[in-house]
Amino acid sequence: MLTRIRRGRTPFGALKEVPRHPTDHRLARAFLRAAAPILLLVFAIAVQPISAQQLVGAITLDEALRQFRARGFDLLLANASIAGAEGDVASAGAIPNPQLSLARGRTSTYDPALCSGCSNTSITAAITDQLAISDALTGKRRLRTDIARAALEAAKHSRADAERTLGFAVKQQLLQAELGKQALIFAQEAQRLTAETLDLVTKRYTAGAVSEADVARAEVQKLEADQAVDVAGQSLAQAEAALAFFLGYDDVPPGFDVADDLLRATPSPRLAATSHDELLREALANRPDLASARAQLQGAQAAVDLAHRLRIPDVSPSLQYSREGSGQNALSPPTVTFGIAATLPVFNHYRGEESRAEADLQTRDISRKKIEAQIGSDVSSALGSFTSARNRTARMQDRLLDRAARARDLVRLQYEKGAASLFEFLDAQRTFLGTQTEYLQTLNDYWTAVFQLEQATGVELRP
Fold this sequence. Notes:
Blueprint: E1 2-7, E2 15-19, H1 22-46, E3 58-59, H2 61-71, H3 73-93, E4 99-106, E5 121-128, H4 132-138, H5 140-206, H6 212-246, E6 257-258, H7 261-264, H8 269-273, H9 276-286, H10 288-309, E7 315-324, E8 332-342, H11 351-416, H12 422-457
Parallel strand pairs: 3-6
Antiparallel strand pairs: 1-2, 4-5, 5-7, 7-8
C-alpha cells in the first residue's frame, strides 16, 4: 500500500511513488529500469531541432550532399520529370473507355395515328470499344506501355546522372569554401608574421642597424599581407554563397559555416589499390547516363516494333440498338445490330513511321556507344590527374611544408643575430607563404581529381 508521494532523484525530476512493502520496492525499481530507455528516447525526440535551416552548423561533405539531394533545385525538377513519366506509363497502359452514343429523332411526313403501335420517334443506342480489344490482340498497347516504361527508366537514370554531375559541382564548391577558409587563416597568419617583421625591422632601424629602405620593404610586405586578407575573405564569402545556392538556400543562412573534413582527410587506400581496368568496369556498370542511354535504346526498339504493327488494321466492334415504333406495323421495329469497323491499309502503309522509328533506334545506339567511349576517356583522364595530384600532395605533406617552415625560422634567427640580410629573411618568409598557397592549390588538385574519378565511375571512392 502506498503511503505518500515524494520527489525522487530521477534524471527527469519526476514524482516517484514510495511503496511500503519490500516487494513493492523491487517492482518499482524494475519498472523504472525498464521505462528509462523509453523515457530517454522520448526526451531525445522532444529536443530534436525543428528545422535544418535553423541549425546549419559546420557543413561537412556528407551533410552537404545530403542537403543537396533533399533540396537541390535541379534534383527537384528531375523529380517532377519522373512524376510526369510515371503518369505517361499509367496513360499508355490504360484501357480506353467504351464509347456510348444515344440518338433520338422524329420522322417527318409520317402519321403514326394511321396504324396501331406506330410512332414517328426514332431511338438509337450504340456502344463501341474504342479499339481496346484490337490494341490488346495486336500488342500495340503493350508496346506503348514498354515505350513509356523505358522513358520512365531513362528519366530515373537522368535524375541520377544529374545528381552525379551536379554532385561534382557541390563537392567542388564545398572544397572551394574549405580551401577559402584555410586560405583566410593562412592570410591572417601571414599578416601577423609580416606585422612582427615590420616591428622588428623598425626597432633595428631605430637602433641604426638597418636602413630606411629595409623598413620600406618590410612595410610593403605587410601591406601585401593586408591585401591578401581582404581578398581571401571575399573569396570565402563568394564560395559560401555559391554553396548555399547549390544546397537549396535562397540566401546564406545565419551561422553558415563549412568544416575542414577534406583538409584533414587522408588518401583512400581503395584509390591507391584500384587499377584503370577496375575503375572502367565500375564506370560501365554504374554510370547513370549509360543506363539512361540503354533504357532509351530499349524504348526505341519497342517503338520500332510498334511502327511495324501499325500495318495491322485497327478493328473496332460495335453493338447498336434502334427502333421507331413497335409491332408489325412499326416503321422500324426494335433491332439489335452487331458490327465491326476496320481501317483498310490501302494508301498509307506507315513507311514513314517505320523509317523514323528505325532512325531513332540507330541514333540511340550510336549515343550509347558514344557514352561508353566517353566513359573510357573520363576514367583515363581522371586517373592521370589523380596520380599526379596524389604524388604532389604526399611530397608536400611529407617534406616540403616542414622544410619551408624550418628554413623560414632559421633565417629569421640568423637575421635577428645579424648573420642574414633582410632580403634573405623576407625571401625565406615569402617562400614559406608561397609554399602554403601552393599546398592549398595541391589539395584543390587532389580532391578535384578524386571528385572527377567519382564522377567518371559513378560511385563514391572516398573512405
